[in-house]
Backbone:
């Protein structure tokens, strides 16, 4: 029909028509202040209205109502403080009066004087209710209108938002253009050859790189106040606090930031620096060490801008590794090449002289399964060692490395995805008296670690054989600069000293991406061990692998968390599957370490049965995991565990749901306080919670509402499951948060994440949550049933815990 | 005709998909993070006078009066939104649904007062 055609032709629509569906009733539309696009307050076939969909997906927060709408042209803002963030705005009605006022929830709606002024403070309600704006602000288009409008799906909305990131003027019609819609090719189990392998992984790495670039470059922050300092190395340091970084953005040591001065007290200035301090429990300060402090406006303190600098280095190295794997037949041995591609190759054993004693000097003696793991690894060109939690994975890895050096000489390359994991392993290997070099990224040289003295840049400073280099280094340290002739000479000398040290090393340790460092280019590594390999993406793993490997040992545990892939498209296509996991799927049996030395035997029962087919044995007995002289009301004396039934309401009703549960937080505080009072030190306790909202709230709550001194609570680590992977605590308290009936438990339904959460504690674990909701997940249903059978599903005050008779929900369907 | 209108769907049907789920959790995250940020940041309370305006008070109507006077549609009631433009107060009238929480709340308040 003619009407329809006109309707769908967006050129004919007024500019205030909903950019998603075309609805253009002035009553029903809102403008986003940031991108000036209009959206309607109808939800079509999605869960939230179009304007809310847009604000959430684009991370925009401010809106203006249409001049012909119910309230006329109005910018939504707090009456008192003027904040325009609609996610914190709400309204309060007057007591028995038909007047309302818009106020932000914090601090304006919380001030005490409101009551005296005849406002009904307790009646504060958010402006966003049920995922759309309140209808007295913006009407909801009628159902018939919505049916007549363009039927846009959540997928299309998502894509359109993606398009807008590159081209603000993109329209719905652009979605139909070829190329936009294409999903990348899925990863495979087996590959024909290295070229096909590169052709599939290359685009995924590109997607992730693009995502990362966009994220970093969109994080510029203005109005930054700077505090200046000078480091021990005489370099200029700038400290400042960033407002709110995007939830997805994690600032890391070594990241690059650009600081710019835009005020009028000094000529414009910009300088780049590496992050040397990140926000933590002790403060929100960020510190950057400037590459070149000369000319920095250190007398100015305000009017600075901070940009995040995206670096392509790690992605470039992955791409290079993929190419090398395809084209360079010396990059890996033929055997490894075919095994990695999933070709049918018979397993071979090296003919080698196995040592009499498998343990390494200064490391603990190995147990049976650890000895077999070492033997297994030494004899094979490709082996997978699976180390469930607490099974001595690092010691086993260090011993394997020691034996490899004894057998074939060095250098052996040792990698892990994270710097922390590399440092841990480096420390253990160093104990065996092997010559170890820890190679750090240049941007991380200023960052201290327990193995700093092993870092290449520090070892070079201590080389007393090269006096000329030392003199130049001293001169450079003192004056900060060298003449160009001296600088050239200095670099040359440093380079050859570096090469000398690397060539003489028995073991070189670095992150996976660090293995792409140009300083390693000319070295060949016969043997490579990658620890925590399940946390690396496949291309990341390939960076060390293509350095000539003939013997590859992947250590990991595919039952724990995998790599973090930010770009959903790339993750969906399979980039979040690790090489370790694919090789397991291909039928390469991982050799599993079987004795765990971490958990109280009662704590390891469920993880062993559920995640490791009951194969985990206990290397510690209950007595060794008893908290002596600690009076804590465990419901069953010999079982230091319980599930604390909490049915607290979630905080922000109306705006959908939220990841904040105050009752649960209060309970967690009570438990923590009880432990502290009975003599547990705060650093023995770890609190796990899956949502940032709850984490931040808990930290605040304990500090200000906790009955003990605030400082004590600061030492308690409160973090996500992911932050605890690879680590342990004496006591773990877990706050599950979700108690909303209508939604799934998101994040918590990944078995690997649950496994990690349950296996961090050595002495005791307490889980606080709502069984009614959690039990809908088959995984949690199992866990809850286990706790119930053990008579440790309890409720009531801590001083009087009683078995709970709460009924579980039927689990939806059995996954896993 | 009636048979025809029966054939057309009455409302858009919600389509469940991963993108929609992502939206749901992103919204939750956004709300809680933004509120947490406000709690963490030391924001000073401003000295703006927020007292209920007298002008409006003198024109005060009861729930029943509001219901039958000055209403464009049945089933709504008039309210005033107090906003600030720069330093000036502005009052914007609007109509809320009789069944809305806002309207119900006002009625409850009046009932309480009458009983007193
Ligand atoms: Zn719309
Ligand atoms: Zn926008
Ligand atoms: Zn405010």
Residues:
């Amino acid at each position: 029909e003619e009407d329809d055609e006109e309707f769908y032709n967006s050129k004919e629509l007024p500019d205030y028509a909903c950019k998603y569906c075309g609805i253009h009733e002035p009553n029903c539309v809102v403008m986003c202040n940031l991108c000036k696009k209009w959206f309607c307050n109808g939800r079509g076939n999605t869960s939230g209205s179009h304007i809310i969909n847009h604000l959430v997906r684009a991370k925009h927060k401010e809106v203006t109502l249409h001049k012909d709408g119910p309230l006329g042209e109005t910018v939504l803002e707090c009456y008192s403080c003027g904040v325009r963030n609609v996610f914190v705005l709400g309204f309060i009605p007057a007591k028995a009066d038909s007047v309302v006022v818009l106020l932000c929830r914090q601090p304006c709606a919380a001030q005490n004087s409101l009551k005296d002024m005849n406002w009904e403070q307790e009646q504060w309600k958010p402006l966003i209710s049920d995922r759309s704006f309140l209808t007295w602000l913006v009407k909801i288009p009628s159902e018939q209108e919505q049916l007549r409008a363009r039927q846009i799906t959540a997928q299309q909305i998502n894509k359109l938002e993606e398009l807008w990131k590159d081209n603000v003027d993109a329209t719905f019609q652009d979605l139909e253009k070829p190329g936009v819609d294409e999903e990348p090719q899925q990863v495979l189990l087996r590959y024909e050859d290295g070229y096909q392998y590169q052709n599939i992984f290359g685009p995924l790495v590109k997607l992730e790189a693009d995502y990362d670039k966009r994220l970093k470059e969109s994080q510029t922050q203005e109005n930054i106040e700077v505090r200046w300092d000078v480091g021990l190395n005489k370099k200029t340091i700038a400290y400042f606090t960033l407002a709110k970084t995007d939830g997805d953005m994690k600032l890391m040591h070594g990241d690059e930031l650009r600081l710019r001065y835009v005020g009028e007290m000094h000529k414009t200035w910009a300088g780049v620096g590496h992050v040397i301090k990140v926000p933590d429990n002790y403060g929100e300060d960020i510190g950057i060490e400037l590459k070149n402090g000369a000319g920095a406006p250190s007398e100015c303190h305000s009017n600075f801008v901070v940009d995040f600098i995206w670096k392509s280095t790690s992605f470039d190295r992955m791409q290079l590794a993929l190419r090398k794997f395809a084209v360079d037949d010396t990059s890996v041995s033929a055997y490894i090449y075919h095994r990695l591609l999933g070709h049918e190759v018979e397993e071979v054993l090296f003919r080698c002289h196995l040592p009499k004693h498998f343990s390494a000097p200064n490391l603990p003696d190995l147990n049976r399964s650890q000895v077999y793991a070492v033997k297994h690894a030494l004899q094979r060109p490709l082996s997978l060692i699976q180390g469930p939690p607490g099974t001595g994975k690092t010691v086993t890895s260090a011993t394997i490395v020691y034996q490899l050096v004894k057998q074939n000489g060095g250098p052996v390359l040792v990698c892990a995805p994270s710097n922390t994991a590399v440092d841990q392993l480096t420390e253990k290997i160093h104990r065996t008296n092997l010559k170890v070099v820890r190679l750090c990224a240049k941007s991380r040289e200023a960052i201290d670690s327990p193995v700093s003295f092993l870092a290449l840049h520090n070892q070079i400073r201590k080389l007393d054989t090269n006096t000329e280099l030392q003199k130049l280094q001293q001169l450079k340290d003192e004056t900060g600069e060298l003449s160009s002739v001296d600088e050239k000479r200095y670099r040359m000398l440093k380079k050859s000293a570096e090469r000398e040290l690397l060539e003489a090393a028995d073991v070189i340790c670095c992150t996976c991406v660090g293995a792409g460092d140009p300083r390693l280019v000319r070295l060949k590594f016969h043997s490579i061990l990658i620890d925590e390999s399940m946390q690396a993406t496949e291309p990341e793993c390939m960076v060390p692998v293509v350095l000539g490997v003939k013997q590859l040992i992947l250590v990991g545990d595919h039952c724990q968390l995998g790599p973090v892939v930010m770009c959903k498209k790339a993750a969906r296509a399979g980039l979040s599957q690790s090489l370790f996991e694919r090789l397991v799927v291909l039928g390469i049996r991982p050799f599993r370490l079987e004795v765990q030395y971490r958990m109280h035997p009662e704590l390891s029962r469920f993880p062993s049965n559920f995640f490791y087919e009951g194969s985990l044995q206990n290397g510690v007995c209950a007595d060794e995991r008893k908290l002596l002289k600690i009076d804590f009301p465990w419901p069953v004396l010999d079982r230091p565990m319980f599930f604390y039934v909490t049915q607290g309401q979630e905080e922000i009703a109306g705006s959908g749901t939220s990841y904040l549960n105050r009752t649960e937080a209060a309970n967690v505080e009570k438990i923590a306080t009880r432990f502290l009072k009975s003599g547990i030190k705060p650093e023995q306790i770890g609190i796990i919670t899956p949502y940032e909202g709850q984490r931040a709230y808990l930290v605040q709550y304990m500090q200000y509402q906790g009955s003990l001194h605030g400082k004590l609570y600061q030492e308690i680590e409160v973090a996500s499951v992911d932050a605890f992977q690879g680590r342990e605590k004496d006591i773990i308290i877990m706050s599950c948060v979700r108690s909303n009936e209508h939604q799934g438990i998101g994040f918590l339904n990944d078995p690997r994440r649950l496994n990690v959460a349950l296996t961090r504690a050595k002495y005791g674990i307490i889980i606080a949550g709502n069984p009614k909701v959690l039990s809908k997940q088959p995984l949690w249903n199992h866990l809850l049933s286990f706790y119930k059978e053990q008579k440790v599903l309890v409720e009531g005050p801590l001083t009087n815990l009683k078995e709970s008779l709460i009924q579980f929900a039927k689990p939806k369907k059995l996954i896993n | 005709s009636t048979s025809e209108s029966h054939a057309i769907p009455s409302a858009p049907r919600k389509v469940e998909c991963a993108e929609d789920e992502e939206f749901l959790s992103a919204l939750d995250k956004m709300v809680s993070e933004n509120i947490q940020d406000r709690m963490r940041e030391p924001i000073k309370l401003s000295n703006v006078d927020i007292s209920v305006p007298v002008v409006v008070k003198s024109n005060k109507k009861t729930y029943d009066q509001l219901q039958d006077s000055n209403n464009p549609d049945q089933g709504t009631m008039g309210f005033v939104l107090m906003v600030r433009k720069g330093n000036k107060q502005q009052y914007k009238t609007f109509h809320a649904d009789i069944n809305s929480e806002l309207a119900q709340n006002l009625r409850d308040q009046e009932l309480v007062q009458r009983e007193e």
